[in-house]
Amino acid sequence: MYESYYGLNSKPFQLTPDPEFFFASKLHKRAMSYLQYGLSQAEGFIVITGDIGTGKTTIANSLLNNIEEDIYAAQIVTPKLSPDELVKMVASKFNLPAEGRSKSDLLESIQTFLQQLNASGRRALLLVDEAQNLPLETIEELRMLSNFQLNGKPLLQSFLLGQAELQPILRAPNMEQFRQRIVASCHLTPLSSDEMREYIEHRLHHAGYDKESLISSEAYDAIYQFTNGVPRKVNTLMDRILLYGYLEELENFELEAASQVIEEVRAEMFESKPEFVEQPEPTQEPVQHVVNPSPLPSSNKPETEFLTPNGNKIQDATYYKEMLGELVDALDDAIKHKIKLTQYIDKMLKQKYQAYVRLKDKD
To answer: Could you tell me which residues come within 8 angstroms of residue 347 by beta carbon, excluding any fewer than 6 positions away?
Structure first.
């Protein structure tokens, strides 16, 4: 809707990861170099972890978008797969028949496929997204798949993407054999304030924006305080800011306009207004092998406390009533904001249409 108004040839802030818009911050650039090295080793596991929205899938897609033609890549977005389900999924991704076949038959078919791929001068790469959802025994099944070899040469390399929860899984004492197979790993953190500004300008110019400044320094500060430099949150907010600017016919954005959009988005996302804490600069190398785990802290929970299978504390009925009440209030507020925004957009579109008709009549 706002693309032509700002002279853009595409939407610069989509939620769907697009390697064409990949922004190489200092950390992402270094991580990409390590991952390219890991890929060049043609064996073992490559691991990327990071909080939600920090660009794991984007960096993986960017890497895959530039891989050599001799690599056959298959991608799996995992729910909680059992080892048998994983084998079926891998077979399916390699276009092998999987229904009604035993696990041993599927493993034999996968091995034959990998050998044929190798004979044609190619190799296989398996990309597993949301890997933190995999049980330990399923990750172990991935390790077993990496044992397929021909003349001492590995036939399959795996690429794991996961949220930070994947790290303690890989640190488990019984994951030692898996850790020894990791050839490269990295943990992605949010962008710094300066990097976020470069990220926004990079995407705008890549989409065709040819002017020098669209957003004031004060507005950038407000955007950073709200998003904490998380790329996905930046994309969500900037898309709304550009829509607001189009409807209000703004040529650039000052603090007042950015703050108004931020408050609208905050209400829709059910977020309170937290005290902002500046993200510290990373003090360690962003890419490192997983080390042996430190002892877990002892539990101080009383014996009478009950937990769900996922380890969550079971609260009393009063807690849930209060939580439901807050949720109802939040939903009511969100609906009101949605209605208000829809009415506002409808009004502005009508005004633009009427202006268009008047200009047409004059012609």
So the answer is: none
